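Cross-check.
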Amino acid sequence: MVTVTEPRLLVPVDESASLRNTVAYAVDEAISRAGEEREPATIHFVFPLAERISFRNSSSRADAARTLLDRVASWAEEDAKGADITIETALVATHEYLSTPNDYADVLVRYANEHDLGLAVFDPRYDPIGSTPLLPSLEAEVRRAGLTVEEAPRDAEQPSQPLVRRGTLTQFFALFAASFGFYLLLAGSVAPFELATGAISAGIVAVALWRVSLTSPVAPLQTVKRLARFCLYVPFLLWEIVKANVEIAYIVLHPDLPIDPEMVEFDAAVWSALPVTTLANSITLTPGTLTVDVERQHLIIHTLTGSAREDLFAGTLERAVRFVFYGRAAARIPSPFERREEDDA
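Predicted model, tokenized:
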């Protein structure tokens, strides 16, 4: 078995609980391997950052990535303790869309080849797209491309939040009612057999998931109000879909096919998972716009035409979603276009 002593290391970084430990491990490895090879050690800390097309020259995500790289470089210099080691940092893939282990592996291998790096050290909790299975697949792809791969040892496990939380009877009955209603909707009948089997199924779902699926206490009055506002939102959304379908049909039938595709992004003025998901899905359901990526309330959207972009940044859907979840007063907010002008001012 050949022992690899390559003193030129590639270390992908992202926020994680074990990042500090990974930096220390990478520095120790680089110094040790440099001693064996009798040449200076080099570590390249890289942050793969998919392109974020924005109104501003610098997005908050890019700024956060640069801040993290600066912090990592400081840690590495502290751990080096005067040793002959070169620390490099870089944002990579700033003009690419990354979504799979293959995408990340291609970027990392390309960077390693350009800078003559032979060893990739991975943080055991490296998870840039929030997908737990990414790391093993990513390591395998990088190794398959010819690089030597090592994983930094795991530090002491941090206490994790329990999957099962304390639940309330309100949450139990809310989940039971939602499951029962959904069952009857799919069944399309309120016959005694459907009512009985629906109640049994909903009971099983509620017992199994009432302390898992509901992340916050259920306020019955607020829930009823939201459902009522949602009933108003549905015909509004259908009308927006109809209008967009007419426009897309016109474009498809037009001899010149007047499309102007472009990727755009903005920070939506909605918070928590359900409102963001509602807005993202509403945008996707409207022909001419497609939600490509969502990170918290930051949306990346593919738009097919200029008018689709204008409608998107006019904030009509965003205001409607805010109306559903936060009430009438919350719908009176600046549109994404108006917020852009405020940022530029």
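The first helix runs from residue 19 to 37. The beta strands are 8-12, 41-48, 85-92, 119-122, 148-151, 262-267, 289-295, 298-303. Passed to J.P. for a second look.
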